[in-house]
Write a structure and sequence with these properties.
Chain lengths: ~325, ~300
């Protein structure tokens, strides 16, 4: 007891308070410096390709041939951008990409959230087994099921219903439906991961929230829409961002399923062939800057999207008032 | 009487909920049967046969277990590649999880320039996804790797340090694992994009009230991390483990996967053998996943059960 009082006395002695805050401040500055240095280093590693992309994009052919030019172009040129714009056929490809990406992302958020909720909050016997299958879909690389799935979508027939009703099958490949249709059923590109993300988020929420909804007379659907959804905002932002980025720059699926429908990523991958018109060229110095201008044009919308999206990240929590 | 009535009502609700859950999950299963199961069964059939494709028509000639025995006994490239891929996966999973959790906790604090830094940490998600990898592969690896052909920035490679350690420890394989890990720092940072994003989302979902009450009770931020952050984020840790395993498995840089793909679409056009290799590989990955999830799911903390 007396010891305690002594402690209190020294703690409140004049001058000591200032000293402890001074020590705290020094500590804080040292920590701050340490983390600033650490994150500067990591940040450099991450920004490096971006710098590379943008500096290469404004180089002229002369700069590419000049070995003394490493980063900053001596004869910078902006013409690479309009060139790349033309080769990619930007307006049309952008329209196609947006059409596919936006619809798939909206679908993924709606469908995977619902399925994730189904796996998280409803108990039934075979749930574990079904969820193991969800994880299994993640393990299957798209390359493995490509050929059979392509043939299937080329002559699409939902359980034989179409051929019964219309006497023929539908050709889904070459239209956005080839990518949208699997997503409707939660089978799109990495849909399994999105279901898993939502399931973990919904599972982590307190049951009291749901029970309050049921007691107030909400049905299952209303409870889900009005109570669970708003609280899962971080999950929605994450899934939305990931789905958008992955579909935006997906080459594999789009080049296979969307034949005859140019998208940004597919045009970008083929840009070298487009520039050289398929001829084998030994010296690519006039191709590379245009290629990187194309890369810059394709990733700029994504960076803007993240800067906008990440604001939602912070807001969503401040708005949703879960009390644990 | 009232008690019985209550219980019956409750079980009615439970049954109702089970039905709703079944409707949702069986909807998913229908999709699985349509788009996954059918192609999977097809590819499994391919793996047991010789596949010839002529103008969109596929003909199968059954070969039995030939492809599988060939993979394990005659193919000189397959087994070493498989072994390499698996060690890379195990080491990466551990490093990526620790690194991304650390970064996410840091990025979740309030400090000037946080928005910019978060945007920077989002770059790997953009740059390592699909198109850009294909486009930049040749140029960037040539830039970074120099003549060794090993990916990674030269300045980050611990060549001298590594040799010194190896001679000091008399070529201890455990040290080799460590120095390899240091060599991969660059790749670890690059592979952590999605995981950091997921961890940030998970951290955002933790109620600030928990931290406030802990602080009132006199908990230090170190204690709060172990007692609040870690249990609350544990569901996300499992996702990240699973994702990292799958990501290194389906990675474009995965030599085995490229081998499998080249087998099918490259010069050889051996669809059947390629399918067999793929099935061996993801059989092993499935076992790895099941093991890690089985071990971890008992440790995971969910707020309500």
């Amino acid at each position: 007891m007396t010891k305690h009082v002594e402690k209190l006395k020294t703690a409140f002695a004049p001058g000591s308070h200032r000293r402890t805050t001074a020590i705290k401040r020094v500590k804080k500055i040292i920590y701050g410096l340490f983390f600033a240095m650490l994150f500067f280093g990591i940040g450099y590693v991450l920004v490096y390709p971006l710098i590379y992309i943008f500096t290469t994009a404004i180089k002229s052919t002369a700069d590419m041939l000049d070995t003394t030019t490493v980063w900053i172009a001596k004869r910078p040129t902006w013409t690479n951008f309009p060139d790349a714009w033309g080769y990619i056929n930007y307006p049309r490809s952008l329209f196609n990409t947006l059409q596919v990406t936006l619809s798939v992302t909206a679908l993924n958020m709606a469908v995977c959230s619902t399925i994730g909720y189904g796996f998280a909050r409803f108990r039934f016997r075979e749930r574990g087994l079904l969820f193991a299958l969800v994880i299994f879909t993640l393990v299957v690389p798209p390359q493995v099921i490509l050929l059979p799935n392509y043939l299937y979508l080329q002559r699409f027939d939902l359980f034989g219903i179409f051929s019964l009703l219309m006497g023929g099958t539908l050709k889904m490949t070459g239209t956005p439906m080839a990518i949208l249709l699997p997503a409707i059923f939660g089978q799109g590109l990495k849909s399994g991961l999105f279901i898993y993300i939502f399931r973990q988020f919904y599972r982590g929420m307190p049951t009291e929230l749901e029970e309050a909804g049921y007691i107030d007379g909400c049905g299952t659907v209303r409870t889900y829409l009005r109570i669970m959804l708003p609280n899962a905002m971080p999950a929605f932002v994450t899934v939305g961002l990931l789905s958008f980025v992955w579909h935006w720059s997906d080459v594999f699926g789009q080049s296979q399923y969307l034949d005859g429908m140019p998208t940004l990523s597919v045009r970008l991958v083929g840009i070298t062939t487009l520039i050289t018109r398929g001829a084998a060229v030994a010296n690519l110095s006039y191709v590379t800057p245009v290629k990187y201008a194309g890369v810059a044009l394709v990733i700029l919308p994504l960076i803007v999207l993240y800067l906008v999206g990440q604001r939602f990240f912070v807001q969503s929590v401040e708005r949703s008032g879960i009390v644990g | 009487m009232q008690q019985i009535k209550k219980r019956r009502k409750r079980s009615g609700l439970e049954r109702n909920k089970a039905l709703t859950g079944r409707i949702i999950c069986y909807f998913w299963l229908a999709g699985f049967l349509l788009f996954m199961a059918a192609p999977l069964v097809q590819s499994l059939r391919y793996s047991f046969s010789r596949v010839d494709i002529t103008q969109g028509n596929v003909t199968l000639t059954p070969t039995g277990l030939n492809h599988y025995t060939h993979a394990f006994t005659a193919d000189a490239q397959f087994l070493p590649m498989l072994f390499d891929s698996l060690t890379v996966i195990v080491v990466d999973v551990l490093l990526v999880t620790f690194f991304s959790l650390f970064v996410a906790v840091m990025l979740n604090r309030k400090f000037p320039g946080r928005a910019l830094l978060r945007a920077i940490f989002f770059l790997p998600v953009i740059i390592t996804s699909g198109a850009l990898v294909y486009v930049m592969q040749s140029d960037v690896t040539a830039q970074f790797a120099g003549t060794t052909g090993q990916a990674g920035m030269p300045m980050l490679q611990t060549v001298d340090f590594k040799e010194m350690l190896m001679t000091l420890t008399n070529n201890n394989p455990a040290v080799a694992v460590l120095t390899d890990a240091i060599d991969r720092v660059y790749q670890i940072i690059w592979k952590s994009g999605v995981q950091i994003l997921l961890f940030i989302a998970g951290l955002q979902a933790i109620s600030p009230a928990l931290y406030e009450s802990a602080e009132v009770e006199g908990s230090t931020s170190w204690e709060s991390f172990w007692k609040i952050t870690l249990p609350m984020i544990s569901p996300i840790i499992v996702i990240n483990l699973v994702y990292t395993i799958i990501d290194s498995f389906t990675d474009y840089n995965n030599t085995l996967l490229r081998y499998i793909q080249d087998m099918a679409f490259g010069t050889t056009l051996n669809q059947g053998y390629s399918a067999a290799l793929a099935w061996i590989f993801f059989g092993i990955i499935s076992v790895l996943l099941a093991l890690s999830m089985g071990l971890l799911s008992r440790k995971v903390f969910y707020m309500n059960d």
